């Protein structure tokens, strides 16, 4: 079991799927679960600030009809009740909704056992914010993947430009900083490295360089 935690846009997702592919292990993208809650709640017009909407959101989280479909060379696709929502859950509005719902303890509680159910042989790569601190405290190797907010904003901007989506770098930067702050300052499972995590700063590194560092750590573990 290897956990990868860290802020959004630090490269965790790419590194986690590359690692899972290389080792032939299973992959848990826990952020996708929070994003699915965010997407479903947005579609139902639910607001995390309205107490009466929270019960419904918890019910959604408990019964998420999610299915992860392995996608050759591109990680995995995400299906919600048979609908392919892989791209829909990456929308900015969904990122924000996910992070707001994720701050509520009953939502986290509702997703806890579902995340632990991903454990299977020969091994699991778990990607998120609290994988090493809360969900899998006994993981064999814990990694905390980070990068400067400027670099993360530039990467997101490049990603969007590549897809032909108009974007504003300054605005993306502000959103990243705001989401980091919300994830790190919440009481429930705040974003922070586990005490026994190896911190890997990917600022200035490409994927291959970061993977090299991780493979060295995996090899050192035996
Ligand atoms: O990793 P990703 O950007 O897809 O996660 C979306 C949001 O879900 C994060 O901003 C965070 O608020 C929440 N999240 C979380 N705990 C996790 C994974 C994601 O709170 N383990």
UniProtKB/TrEMBL annotation:
A biological process from GO: pyrimidine nucleotide metabolic process
Residues annotated as domain Cytidylate kinase: 2-217
Principal place of residence: cytoplasm
Family per similarity comment: Belongs to the cytidylate kinase family. Type 1 subfamily.
Secretion signal, residue range per the UniProt entry: none
Protein name from the UniProt record: Cytidylate kinase
Superkingdom field: Bacteria
Reaction catalysed by this enzyme: CMP + ATP = CDP + ADP; dCMP + ATP = dCDP + ADP
GO cellular component: cytoplasm
GO molecular function, one term: CMP kinase activity
Entry-linked SUPFAM superfamilies: P-loop containing nucleoside triphosphate hydrolases (SSF52540)
Binding site for ATP: 6-14
Keyword Nucleotide-binding: yes
Alphabetical list of InterPro entries matching this protein: Cytidylate_kin, Cytidylate_kinase_dom, P-loop_NTPase
Protein location: Cytoplasm
Keyword entries, A-Z: ATP-binding, Cytoplasm, Kinase, Nucleotide-binding, Transferase
EC number: 2.7.4.25
